[in-house]
Amino acid sequence: MITGRSGGARLARAGAGITAVALLAACTAGQGTAPGTASAPTAGARPQPSPEELGPPGATPRPGEVGRIPSSGSLPPVISSIPTRRKVVFLTIDDGWEQDPGFVRQVRDQRIPITAFVMRDAVEAIGAPDPAGGQGRFVGRGKWGYVRLLRDAGVPIENHTLTHPNLRTLGYDAQKAELCGSSRLIGKEVGVRPTLFRPPFGTYNTDTQRAAKACGLQALLLWTATVQPGGKIAYQVPDKRLRPGDILLLHFRPNLARDFRILVSKIKRRGFELGNLDAYLKAALRRAK
Ligand SMILES: [Zn+2]
User: Where are the stretches annotated Disordered (predicted)?
Assistant: First the structure.
C-alpha cells in the first residue's frame, strides 16, 4: 500500500478526480503571469474552485478495473506499468535541472496529473545538466522553491537519490545513504516524505529494494517509454504503441512546456486519458501484503 501521510490524503481525495485531458482545450489561464506567481483571475471569469475542492487531477480507477501487482515478499515491488485495460497512461518527470515556471502554470491550470522524481544535485544545480533539449534558461533558478511550487500545483514529489549514481555499483550502506538522505531532504524542503523511488538509469538490485524499505519507500517505479525533446515518445516495446497502463518518463529539460503540450495532445489524439498514479498504485497494490 502507498500510505504516506500525503499519499493517504491524495488517495482519499481521488474519487473526485477528473480527467486532465478534458480540460486542456478550455484552459489558458495564467499564460501572462509572472514566473512563480499564482494565476491571476481572468477578467470576467467565475472564481475557480481551489485544488482541495477539485481533488487530485487525472483519471481514477473504476471498481475492478486494476489488476494486482504481485508482492516481492517483504521488499518494495518494482513497477514499470499499471495493470489495466483502460486506455490510461501515467506521466512522470525526473531530475529537476530546468526550472521553468511556465511548466508549473501548465500543470496547475490544466490539472495535469504528473509525479516528479527529484534529485538533489539537479534541483540545487550542483554540476551541469545533460544538454539534451537545448540551452537551459532556468537551470537552478528556483531550487527547492521551484519544487515547492510544483507541490503546490498538486505534483507529488518523490525520491530519485541525491547524486544520481548507478546504484548497482554501490554497496548497501552507500545506497541507503542516497535513498534515506534524499527522503530526509525532501521531507525538510517540501514538507512531505516520499513514498516512491525511481532508480537512476533504471538500474537497481536487491540492496536497492532493501534500502528503499529501510527508508520508508513503498515501491520502485520504472517506466515503459521515455519522452524525447520535441514530445516524441521512445518506446521500450517493439510495436511502438502506447499501451494501457504505460508509465511515461520525461525530464525537466529546456522547452519542456512546449514539448509537454505536444505530448499531451498526442496522447489525447490516440484516445488515452492521463491517470492519477497514486490512485492507480493504491488499487494495484491493494492485496499485495
Ligand atoms: Zn534521472
Answer: 32-78
Q: Residue 273's beta-bridge partner residues?
A: 88
Residue 255 lies in a domain: yes
Q: What is the pTM of this model?
A: 0.82
Going from the Cα of 37 to the center of ligand 1, the distance in angstroms, rounded, reads: 27
162 found inside a domain: yes
Q: How close is the Cα of 277 to the center of ligand 1, in Å?
A: 19
The answer to the question of residue 1 being in a domain is no
Q: Mapping DSSP to helix (H, G, I), strand (E, B) and coil, where does residue 172 land?
A: helix
Say how many Å lie between the CA of residue 249 and the centre of ligand 1: 10
54 Cα: distance to centroid of ligand 1 (angstroms): 31
**pLDDT tens by residue, the chain, 289 residues:** 444 434 433 433 333 333 333 333 333 333 333 333 444 444 555 666 666 677 789 999 999 999 999 888 899 999 999 999 999 999 999 999 999 999 999 999 999 999 999 999 999 999 888 777 778 889 999 999 999 999 999 999 999 999 999 999 999 999 999 999 999 999 999 999 999 999 999 999 999 999 999 999 999 999 999 999 989 999 887 788 999 999 999 999 998 889 999 999 999 999 999 999 999 999 999 864 4
Q: What's the start-to-end Cα distance of the chain, in Å?
A: 8
User: How many Å lie between the centroid of ligand 1 and the Cα of residue 94?
Assistant: 5
The count of domains in the chain is 1
For residue 206, what are the domain limits? 72-264
- CA 46 / ligand 1 centre spacing (Å): 40
Burial of 211 (0-12, 13-18, 19+ CB in 10 A): buried
Q: What is the CATH number of the domain that holds 234?
A: 3.20.20.370
Residue 50 CA, ligand 1 centroid: distance in Å: 32
